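Pasting as-is:
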Amino acid sequence: MGKGGESIPDEEWERFLREAGAGTKGAPEEPSARARMVTRRLREDTGRPEPWRSHRPARRQGSKVWYAVGLLVTAAMVVVTLDPGRVAGWFGGGDGGGESAPLAAESQRPDQPPPTEAAAQLPTMEQPFRGSPAARWGDGTAGIGMPEARATGWMGKGQVARAPEKTRGFLAASSLDPGVLRGERPRKAIAVINPHQRDVQDFLATAFRAPSRENDPLLMFSRFDRTEVRLVGDVVKTRGRITYREGERGAVEVTTDVTYVYPVAPAGAGIDEVARTIVRREVVMSWDDPAKVVVEPGTFSLVSYKMDITNGGCDTFTGYLTPTFSAERAATRPGDGPEVDPYDRSTSMEARMRAAGDAGCGTATRS
């Protein structure tokens, strides 16, 4: 936003970035993905970062509705299944009859998970969020809390206000766009990632051509195979927030932590069973000073990204979220990992992944 809080058009924003980088002494540095995309080891307290490509292998395990934790920086993957004997207990409360008022946008991390009510209410085609805390969450980007602007790093208050807006646009293009959810390539989202981060661009190219544990597009994008799964309705529920701080070289470093709830049904005609896939992602991005870093106008450099999934596939790496339904869940044995509440946002992604460790399949307490 500019003075007085008015919105800055995209053209003006990009012109500002070009002019800010013009005429400066000394050549800007090309961003190094290996240098920038690092994070602390999840199970060590030494604080020593490791390269974003390194990883710990996960144990392969069968699943029912499963919960997975993935981090490209360490590529940790934890899978958790649901106990079929507890299915009725997942669906307490909901968006039918006696629905509570919508929640205000999240402004800080909650101190406890959302409540679980006793009544068993299954989702339906008409009410796909019934029985889920997401029934009170926002629709699409409305569920993502936005920060107040203040001058930070190389940007004044008006330019800082624009960075979260652009960031929210990336989240919409990567995790909410109807075409992308149906399996299309997320071209709009990729277009705002700094093309000078060669490692990142190589990852993106490989992830869509030959998805694997190390090159999994689901770490950043939500996609379903339309021949297997259809989305129920046109609403994705979200809850999360965007924050920022000054990063390296005076950059504005923006962190997004958002949980997405996707209601789905089998693609076949006449099958109206509704399940939900729940994805939580933390993406950290750097809106760099073009006087110090080689960056195209209107693009950001990736710093790190983490992801966990409930009912989205089990160690298959097809490049698509692959939810299971009742028949498949009934045929799969329970796991041996810890219980996880996928709606619990009171724990940070780093803490959640550290707690999961190298566990195999476990139990998601609700879906």
